[in-house]
Write a structure and sequence with these properties.
The complex is a heterodimer of chains A (566) and B (682). Chain A is mainly alpha-helical. Chain A is built from 18 helices and four strands. Chain A is 63% helix and 2% strand. The longest helix of chain B has 41 residues. The N terminus of chain B is likely disordered. The chains are: A mainly alpha (566), B alpha+beta (682).
């Protein structure tokens, strides 16, 4: 570990904290319908959309209608994307003349992009036409992110309102998230990326002749526009198979840093938005701080682990001061790779600039545990906020009793129904991950896709299902996930991890919105101090640890304690 | 409730022995299924027992191990049932004596005013009239409609001093099973047999009518949800192990599951609730439901009647302030004369003050042909006509009017009015004294705030509870007393409807309100309050309206009721935290024991250095079982509690039950493992 490495990590955290507030305030203004800088231009556009779609913007929905709208919208998006993938051979903007995507991969991909997972059971540059990339994948990068943000805002309204029957209008929230937030920011990002040298063209590939005289096709395309939203919307689906390790997707340290910041930007900003919405910004900072504690810890472990030489290198008599550079880009080095891995898994993004499969056992366990923690360490856009709030509800329910009152969060009493729904939401991801991994580990169908023997192979399967259920989308690598078993099982995990959390979360919001608010007093559970921050972080760790301890023991822990490589 | 019952020790063998037997009855799956965690434990115990039986018959390598695990699983279930039985047992003794009192009751009904021969009290119907004379027991709950009597209510309240019950007013309620000591009363029956106060009390102390409270339900949901997560964590292990080319023993998996699910809190949950009610009963307060006890812990605002709760209830004279040209001694002399026959505490305090200030002795009044003028609500003054003098004392306005009438309209000195106002501003009550048409001055009567209440209100404030004093006094007086007593707010010149409006206003802001009251006109407010404590001496209407009855009729108890509610919730939260925190150590015991065969490196996780895999699993299960009985005293007594802001309470309980819950099982399991391996049990 080096001073520069730690400087990068700490500077990154400071920058995220600096971005969070202005962005959070902006988001608050946007979703409250207040005037912002962009209103002059966008308000007419927004209203036109509502007129065209027949949406009454001022009519709000109760949680059931809101949830139904989310499900309906996501279902239609999935069908449309599936159709596009299957029909791309007959459609224009296909310079490399790619044929239809295989049905199982198309289904997997459609679900994957609509659930904001962006797990890729294909190599982009050799499978997807430009039209598919732009009209299908990039559009879903926006929409799935917008859905996440909308649900988070609706969830926050549950806390902010009292005695209310409605939690907002999904169509309005989703439209505003896209128009006022995702489009402008990703446009700026795309222009910045282009300025820094990222390709943005409709050409299919460059023809190059190498020094040896060999002929080479170098794939290019509309990269910058997709990478901007890929990061900002915590999508993570790369234009190229090598994702952010590819020199056209991530050219160097500056672009790398911008990409990491854009992954965390909206997730961090939403915590502040939440604080503003409930009338106490510190509440938002407390959530962000809890996320920060977990993030710093994970990043530190990953950086430390990757800065060690691997057992194989030591056995081979190599200088033990060498670090684990396998699967990492030299232009990023250890710190930026470990940090990127922590960011992308903490935030449910899934972009990778290094191969997690090649991390050491403990280093690789960090991205895995970040996902297993429930994608609440900043988390996917929107999903991180409602995810951590569900944990906050459980934290307050257990610990809140210890102050001798019926637990209440932000003045809302946490009662049986809220607990039931919160438990449901928290149950979704272990259900998909553990059952999925058990099916893979226990059957030949699943074992067939595994590349490495022993616990490392087990980790590959565990990671794949964690990534799907956590709507992360990053691949540990090593696993061949194109078989029918993996494409369908993964799709199921993605759906469970997305919608079995969203629906209970919205139900909680509806339930909370109807409740009155008990004013805080010195007898109420304090939810802004260090104690709460530590407790929330601890509960997230302990729930994750208790749920996945056996699985982690048979994967990364068995590998780490074996003293050899698998 | 006798004194003996109140001081019954936690582990009285009279309670423990029957509870031990009764616990077996509670283990019936039909009863257990209401508690999901223990029901799951029982199912697993049955399953492991079947495995053990199979091994016993067919012979298996793990027979002894299976036998021991199944034994400890059954013990876990039994301990939980025992905890509940012990908690209930504490109420049973009281119920038995109450029931005896009920069964022997006889009634003499009045039909058209004519007494009937005695019949069994159980034949009485609502609105029947019964006559009760000295020496008889009151056969049913009711209201005195005729007569006045002294009644011995010790059977219900444990208080041996008799109380007065009379027709009309706020002391008209009588309770079945209490005994009339003097006089004769006619009682109208207000409660049907089976729903009398006595019946309800029996049901309450027995826990028969116990329903899960909202918070208990929510906690049960959480515990069931955690158990479900652990089902997932455990059932997937065989598939994971098969990938590692190994297998895991089913008994080890069953043990892992039981160790992980929150059996500690699951087993103690209902005992905690029963014990909370029981603590109230011991405190001579009956709650109609567990929900009311929980609500008490949540109270944000306490409405306290000034008189009797905050002040001693009697005003005391503290100063004589003579009018210009009148000596203080002269004023004191007149005041003393006017008060010598005034037997009210106020009158006595004037005599005492005169004696203290000027050493005036009580005088023999009889030879002076003094004529006493008693206080009436109309005149609002009292006094004496003696030796041709007409001395009056009373409310300042009344005295001034009286004097003005005597003098044909001349007004009183402004100094007297100003003095009176100054006293009122100070929170005192001015009492004017006049002699023969001359105002001599005023006396300062003062409400004396009870010792220690200021400190208690400060404690409540620390807990975030606001105190509001309710008084009939005017705003000036109320403000001064409020300041002296340290309450946060006051409601002056309060009428019952003001109380009700105040409660509604606080509730509209989302606050929970507690109050106590005794009169019929308190009933609406008692019903509206989240915690309404009716005094046992109060009217039937008040007792029906409240959700708690204080048998000692001591309004200051509201504060203790709140702490009992808080303690109940804290005990639940602390033991839940402890239970969940325990899981970490159990994982470190069982996971290496299960998986070290597959990957020897995982032996590193055996940080406790447990002697063998079987011993590790057995030790974890034994710890899991015996922690339940070890925590029964804590569950019944409640966690230590003191008034402090929520942040401090949380930090304290977290460090004891959270951190302690993490560490204790590491030590406990290790210690058990030492014993287990020394005894060659595994």
């Amino acid at each position: 570990m080096t001073l520069e490495g730690w400087t990068l990590i700490l500077a990154f955290i400071a920058l995220v904290a600096a971005i969070a507030r202005p962005l959070g305030l902006y988001l608050d203004a946007v979703f409250a319908g207040r005037r912002t800088l962009l209103s002059l231009v966008l308000r007419p556009v927004e209203n036109t959309f509502y007129r065209l779609a027949g949406v009454k913007a001022d009519v709000e929905q109760d949680w059931k209608a809101y949830a139904l709208a989310v499900l309906l919208f996501s279902f239609i998006c999935t069908l449309a994307l599936y159709a596009l993938l299957r029909l791309q051979g007959a459609l224009p903007l296909n310079p490399q003349a790619f044929g239809a995507v295989a049905p199982n991969v198309a289904m997997n991909t459609a679900v994957s992009f609509v659930t904001n997972t962006n797990w890729q059971a294909y190599a982009g540059e050799s499978t997807m036409s430009h039209l598919t990339q732009m009209l299908g994948l990039t559009v879903q990068n926006f929409l799935s992110a917008a859905v996440g943000i909308a649900v988070a805002i609706a969830f926050a309204r549950g806390f902010a309102r009292r005695g209310a029957a409605t939690i907002g209008n999904f169509w309005v929230d989703m439209t505003r998230a896209t128009l006022y937030v995702l489009l402008p920011i990703s446009t700026i990002l795309a222009i910045a990326f282009i300025a820094l040298g990222m390709p943005q063209t409709l050409a299919g590939s460059l023809q190059a002749t190498t020094l040896e005289g060999a002929h080479q096709d170098i794939a290019i395309g509309p990269v910058a526009s997709q990478i901007a939203i890929k990061m900002l919307g915590t999508n993570g689906g790369g234009f190229f198979n090598a994702n952010a390790a590819h020199p056209f997707e991530n050219m160097g340290p500056i672009v790398n840093l911008i990409q990491m910041l854009s992954i965390f930007a909206i997730g961090a900003g939403l915590t502040i938005t939440f604080g503003r919405m409930v009338g106490d910004e510190r509440q938002g900072w407390a959530l962000l701080a809890a996320m920060g504690v977990l993030f710093l810890f994970g990043t530190g472990v990953a950086y430390w682990a990757e800065a060690q030489a691997t057992p194989a290198l030591i056995q081979a008599g190599v200088d033990p001061s060498t670090m684990n550079m396998e699967g990492k880009e030299t232009r990023f080095g250890i710190a930026a790779s470990a940090l990127f891995a922590a960011v992308t898994t903490a935030a449910s993004c899934g972009a990778v600039n290094a191969m997690h499969d090649s991390f050491s056992a403990l280093g690789g366990m960090v991205p895995l545990t970040n996902i297993l923690a429930g994608e609440v360490i900043v988390g996917g856009v929107g999903a991180g906020l409602y995810g951590i709030l569900v944990f906050a509800i459980l934290t307050i329910f257990v610990a809140g009793l210890m102050v001798g009152r019926t637990p209440a969060y932000l003045g809302k009493k946490i009662e049986a129904r809220d607990v039931k729904l919160a438990v449901l939401a928290i149950l979704a991801s272990p259900l998909a991950i553990l059952i999925g991994t058990a099916l893979a580990a226990g059957t030949d169908l699943g074992r067939a896709g595994v590349q490495d023997p022993g616990p490392h192979g087990f980790t590959e399967m565990l990671y794949a299902f964690a990534s799907a259920a956590g709507n992360n989308g990053s691949a540990f690598g090593g696993l061949t996930a194109t078989s029918d078993f993996y494409t369908y099982a993964q799709a199921a995990a993605m759906l469970i991890g997305r919608f079995l959390v969203i629906v209970p979360a919205l139900a909680i919001a509806g339930n909370l919105a109807a409740k009155p608010v008990t004013p805080a007093s010195s007898g109420s559970f304090p939810t802004t101090g260090l104690l709460f921050i530590g407790l929330l972080a601890f509960i997230i760790v302990i729930v994750g640890a208790l749920t996945f301890f056996p699985a982690l023991a048979l994967g990364p822990l068995a590998e780490a304690t074996a003293g050899r490589l698998f | 409730m006798s004194e003996k019952a109140k001081s019954a020790s936690l582990f009285d063998s009279d309670i423990l022995r029957p509870a031990a037997l009764e616990a077996f009855g509670k283990m019936s799956p039909m009863k257990m299924w209401r508690n999901p965690v223990m029901f799951a434990t029982e199912l697993v115990a049955i399953y492991v027992t079947i495995l053990f039986a199979r091994d016993l018959l067919a012979g298996g390598a793990e027979t002894a191990f299976a036998g021991q695990i199944s034994l400890w699983l059954w013990l876990t279930v039994w301990f939980a049932a025992f905890a509940e039985a012990v908690a209930e047992g504490r109420g049973k003794a009281q119920a038995a004596s109450l029931r005896r009192a009920r069964s022997e009751l006889k009634a003499r009904r009045l039909v058209n005013g004519a007494p009937q021969p005695p019949t069994a009290a159980s034949d009485l119907k609502i609105d029947d009239l019964v006559e009760v004379v000295a020496g008889e027991f009151i056969p049913a709950d009711g209201e005195v409609i005729e007569g006045v009597a002294t009644v011995d209510e010790s059977a219900i309240t444990g208080e041996s001093a008799p109380v007065i019950r009379e027709a009309g007013g706020d002391r008209s309620a009588v309770t079945a099973g209490t005994r009339v000591l003097s006089d004769r009363i006619v009682v109208r029956v207000t409660a049907a047999q089976g729903s009398t106060f006595l019946d309800r009390m029996i049901a309450l102390v027995e826990g028969a009518s116990r329903k899960k409270t909202p918070n208990e339900i929510a906690l049960s949901v959480l515990l069931a949800g955690l158990s479900l997560i652990f089902v997932l964590a455990v059932v997937t292990v065989p598939a994971f192990a098969s990938y590692a080319n190994g297998s895991v023993s089913v008994i080890a998996l069953a043990a892992l599951f039981i160790a992980l699910i929150p059996t500690t809190i699951g087993g103690l949950l209902s005992a905690i609730g029963i014990a909370g009610m029981d603590r109230l009963v011991r405190f001579n307060v009956l709650a109609t439901s567990g929900r009311a006890v929980e609500a008490a812990g949540d109270v944000d605002v306490l409405l306290l009647d000034k008189t009797g709760t905050i002040t001693l209830g009697d005003r005391q004279a503290v100063a004589f302030i003579p009018a210009p040209g009148v000596s203080e001694r002269d004023l004191a002399d007149a005041a003393q004369l006017a008060s010598l026959s005034d037997e009210t505490p106020e009158g006595r305090s004037i005599v005492v003050l005169a004696k203290d200030r000027f050493d005036m002795r009580g005088r023999e009044m009889a030879p002076t042909h003094a004529k006493f003028v008693p206080f009436t609500a109309q005149t609002r003054m009292s006094g004496v006509d003696v030796d041709g003098m007409q001395i009056r004392k009373g409310a300042v306005d009344s005295i001034l009017q009286f004097v003005a009438a005597q003098n044909g309209g001349s007004s009183a000195p402004g100094d007297v009015r100003r003095a009176a106002e100054a006293i009122a501003r100070d929170g005192g009550t001015p009492l004017a004294v006049a002699r023969n048409g001359q105002v001599l001055g005023v006396m300062h009567l003062k409400d004396v705030v009870k010792g220690g209440v200021k400190e208690r209100f400060a404690e409540l404030r620390k807990m975030g509870i606001r105190t509001v004093m309710i008084t009939g006094d005017n705003a000036l007086t109320a403000a001064a007393i409020a300041a002296e007593a340290g309450v946060d707010d006051f409601l002056s010149e309060a009428k019952p409807e003001h109380k009700l409006a105040l409660i509604r206003r606080e509730q509209a802001e989302g606050k929970l309100v507690a109050m106590c009251g005794d009169g019929t006109n308190d009933a609406p407010a008692l019903a509206q309050a989240d915690v309404g404590v009716a005094m046992q001496t109060g009217t039937p209407a008040a007792r029906e309206a409240g959700n708690m009855v204080d048998l000692d009729s001591d309004p200051t108890k509201l504060i203790e009721i709140v702490s009992i509610g808080k303690q109940l919730l804290m005990t639940r939260g602390s033991l839940t935290t402890f239970s969940i925190a325990n899981d970490v150590a159990k994982y470190f015991a069982i996971i290496p024991a299960m998986f070290a065969v597959l990957y020897p490196g995982l032996g590193l996780l055996n940080i406790m250095g447990l002697s063998s895999p079987q011993s590790a699993i057995l030790s974890a299960i034994i710890f899991n079982a015996i922690v339940i009985p070890l925590l029964i005293p804590l569950a019944l007594k409640g966690v230590a509690w003191r008034a402090a802001p929520a942040g401090q309470l949380l930090a304290r309980n977290l460090s004891i039950y959270g951190l302690g819950g993490l560490i204790a099982p590491f030590l406990g399991i290790k210690a058990i493992d030492v014993v287990v391996s020394a005894l060659h049990l595994a």
